[in-house]
Amino acid sequence: MIKGFVHLVGRKVKTERSAMILTWLTTIGTFSDPDFRIVTIAPIMKALKQRLNMSTQKIGFVIEATSNPVVALVPVATAFVGYMVSITGTALKHVGITDAPYSVYIRSIPCNFFSFVILIVGFYYSFFRNFGNDWKDKDKDKDKQNPNAQQGEEDLQECYRAFEKDAPSKPWNLLIPLIMVLALTIFLSWWDGHALASNFFDAFLKADALGVMLEAVFITLIVALVFFLLQGFSMAKLVTHFVKGGNELLSVIIMLALIWALSAVSEDLGFSKYIASNVFIWIPHAFVAPALFLLGGLISYFIGSSWGTWGLLMPLGVTLAHQSGTNIYLAIGAVFASGTFGAFASPLSDNTVTLCTILELPVIEYAHLKLKPALIAAGLTTVLFVIASVFLH
Fold first, then answer.
1. Which of 1, 84, 111, 300 could be 309's S-S partner, Cβ–Cβ 3.0 to 4.6 Å?
2. Cα(292)–Cα(340) distance, rounded to whole angstroms?
3. Does 98 reside within a domain?
4. CA angle 257-260-266, nearest 5°?
């Protein structure tokens, strides 16, 4: 349960620096999904903010900088991995590349330059520069007008999607399932691929990543169910929360179905080949990856979805790389980087909306404030793609 973890750490953090350190350390256990990370750590930081008088905007910026960008870099135990491998495999199949999709995805991770750059920017703002100071004063004035503002820990009970008031404060109810799904994913990945591999690390490349993650999730779900029943939780309540959690995924499932359908239709109509032959043919190979990043960044900013951008742009990116001689890993990394940019910077991103709801921030003002460092990171990323394209063929 999130509630137990909140009360476990909430009493131990005494300074703003330690609060920032906590924010970064919690990525270890909350990298499975950006929204999960946000609803886990944001309530904690909201309570600490009242006691430590931190800038709410700075808290939000650091949480977001360590959410989607981190998840996009983790190659195990996330739904992102399954989706990223899936769209990579589909795009590779269209151009006749027979390499294992998971292996190609792994090799493209170092080329997701935006994730690395925004993490560095986030670290800089965490410990070396203030962020949103002009709004910090407004928050301070608001707290003075609210006599209950200093009771931040009590406000946790009302945080959006944080936890139920009557839930027991047992942090292991959260930590055990997280540790288990991660450990199972790693072990089953090795087990699935070790018979075909020559060494330990090669086994992960030979494994069926999608099947392994599905098995790990189902095993963890069954064990967690038994674990909660032994603690006295009713089956009715567990099933109710399971169904509610599934209902929250319906919008994502519908979006993905539409994206996959649009991508499949566009490929059947030869959209990627047409664009590659008539639009991008005049672009030197050194500018294919930067162009993909800039195009994808523009798309992702206006639709606010990393998954949507990846699904739409990956077939085009792989086709362009294949026909122009651009490094395939660099092109795939550029597509993933572009979607990560939109998920971080766009005011339409579900990550941004969820975070602003929990921290009670105005979405547009907050998105405008973080746009400057996001654009700086995007500019540095573009330069890195140009440099990498010169040396990688």
1. 300
2. 13
3. yes
4. 135
Domain end point (choices 200, 230, 260)? 230
206 and 246 within one domain: no
Domain-embedded: residue 158: no
User: What is the token pair recorded at 292?
Assistant: 């993909």
Spell out the per-residue pLDDT of the chain, length 393, in tens: 455 555 666 566 777 788 888 888 888 777 777 877 887 788 778 777 766 777 888 888 999 999 889 988 888 756 678 788 888 888 888 888 888 888 899 899 999 999 999 999 999 988 888 777 544 444 444 444 444 444 444 444 444 444 455 555 566 776 787 778 778 877 887 888 777 777 776 676 667 766 777 788 788 888 888 888 888 888 888 788 777 766 655 665 675 566 567 656 766 776 656 665 665 566 776 788 898 999 889 888 988 888 888 888 898 888 888 887 888 999 999 999 999 998 899 888 888 888 888 888 888 899 899 999 999 999 999 999 999 988 876
Encoding tokens for residue 283? 């672009």
- Could you tell me the two tokens for 35? 């929204």
Type of residue at 40 = T
